[in-house]
């Protein structure tokens, strides 16, 4: 029993001596600046990559085409989509029947 009381007293004493910054909320301005900086760094890294995207187009339940595009980011961070290939699965006769 003596040891339990001693441990409780030590734990409470340690709790009060812990730096108050551990329990304080983050500065919103500093948090906003660090998020903005991380966003900018991530965007710069994303500008180095090009993603290939394939999209299948259907009429009713029949696949009629596959479109392949490259997706990247321009210098301003806006997405750029460029059509690389279009593969049609319909014959010419069927295309004119619409």
Labels describing this entry:
three-stranded antiparallel β-sheet, 98 residues, alpha+beta, 32% strand, 3 strands, single chain, elongated
Task: Explain what you see.
This protein is of the alpha+beta class. The chain has a domain of 50 residues. 40% of the residues lie in helices and 32% in strands. It has 3 helices and 3 strands; from the N terminus they run ααβββα. Strands 1-2-3 form a 3-stranded antiparallel β-sheet, with no helix packed on it. It is elongated and about 90 Å long. The model has no long low-confidence stretch (mean pLDDT 82).
Average pLDDT figure = 82
SSE string: HHEEEH
| β-strand number | 3
Terminal-residue CA separation: 89 Å
Spell out the blueprint of helices and strands.
Blueprint: H1 2-17, H2 28-46, E1 51-59, E2 62-73, E3 79-88, H3 92-95
Antiparallel strand pairs: 1-2, 2-3
Brief summary:
This protein has helices at residues 2-17, 28-46, 92-95; strands spanning 51-59, 62-73, 79-88.
